[in-house]
Design a protein that fits this description.
The relative contact order is 0.10. With 302 residues, the chain is mainly α. It contains 14 helices and four strands. The chain has two domains: 212 residues, Up-down Bundle (Rhomboid-like fold), CATH 1.20.1540; 60 residues, no CATH class. Helix 2 runs antiparallel to helix 6. The longest helix is centred in the N-terminal third of the chain and has 23 residues. It starts with a helix and ends with a helix.
Length: 302
């Protein structure tokens, strides 16, 4: 049974998009940390707390710099199942919008860089408004997820969502409410630092899309790393007598793109995005939806 479960998860990780992979990683880390909590509980829980603090982001700037990996690792640590569940639901709902409209390749950079921006604002907030006495620690993917949430609204503010008990609501209003709740929560005494981190992630998500519209792509580093990883994986999988490797097929398409099927016209994509902003995604024709899908696919291959 456990072997089948492992194989199913592995298959989903390999074939799924980046949203699926991030959810699997976060869930996997939560399971491991929960088991550590269970076993460490028999010895007073000291081991568990040392490990979590080691991977968390401290509000003390000196300690945060000494444990610099915390700027990344804190985005994958969750305390409690509900903490994980809500973050993953938001990642799934809004990550799908971002991936469908501008391409799956932007999800991971938004997640990691948004979490980094949230961590920096968390530290800045502690310098200006110390979060209680002594060092505090932040964990959770909320800042990273808020980066994706706000990015979705920046891309298509008039995209319509069907909310339970409410009905159709434009995406920009949903996101504005979420950001507003974080802003007013910074004045509270419960998790004020966490809400500062959320705002940092949200600000980065908006800035990311703003720069993308200006022709500045902050995901370039991830695209290069993905290509290098794909090349190494392809070479390892290559066996004698095999038909061809995945990388060779992609390379051949890119090589012949100048004489065969051209990439999607950017002006047409911009027109479709403007239509989404005005009338929502559901107003698109099947042809326009297909054009947008091809644009995201072509963007992913670049």
């Amino acid at each position: 049974m456990f072997t089948d479960l492992y194989n199913d998860i592995q298959r989903q990780f390999r074939s799924g998009n980046m949203v699926t992979r991030l959810i699997i990683v976060n869930a996997g880390v939560f399971v491991v940390s929960s088991l550590l909590y269970l076993f460490a509980g028999y010895s007073g829980g000291a081991v568990y707390h040392r490990v979590i603090d080691f991977l968390s982001l401290s509000s003390d700037p000196g300690e945060a710099l000494r444990h610099f990996w915390g700027f990344i690792t804190y985005n994958f640590i969750h305390r409690g199942f509900m903490h994980l569940l809500w973050n993953m639901l938001f990642l799934y709902w809004f990550g799908r919008i971002v991936g469908d409209l501008i391409g799956d390749k932007h999800i991971f950079p938004l997640y990691i860089l948004g979490g980094l921006a949230g961590g920096l604002l968390y530290l800045l907030g502690n310098i200006l408004l110390p979060y209680g006495h002594g060092a505090a620690y932040i964990v959770g993917s909320s800042a990273a997820v808020m980066s994706i949430v706000v990015a979705s609204a920046a891309i298509a503010p008039d995209y319509t969502l069907n909310l339970l008990f409410i009905g159709r609501v434009r995406l920009k209003y949903v996101v504005l409410v979420l950001v507003f709740l974080d802003v007013i929560s910074t004045a509270g005494v419960i998790n004020a630092g966490g809400h500062f981190a959320h705002i940092g992630g949200a600000a980065f998500g908006y800035w990311y899309v703003y720069l993308l519209r200006k022709g500045i792509n902050l995901s370039t580093w991830w695209e290069r790393l993905s290509r290098k990883t794909a090349i190494k994986t392809s070479s390892r999988r290559k066996t004698p007598g095999s038909y061809t490797s995945t990388m060779r097929v992609v390379h051949q398409k890119k090589k012949d793109s100048s004489t065969h099927e051209p990439l999607t016209n950017q002006k047409e994509v911009d027109r479709i995005l403007d239509k989404i902003n005005k009338s929502g995604y559901d107003s698109l024709t099947d042809i326009e939806k297909e054009t947008l899908y091809r644009a995201a696919r072509d963007s992913h291959k670049k």
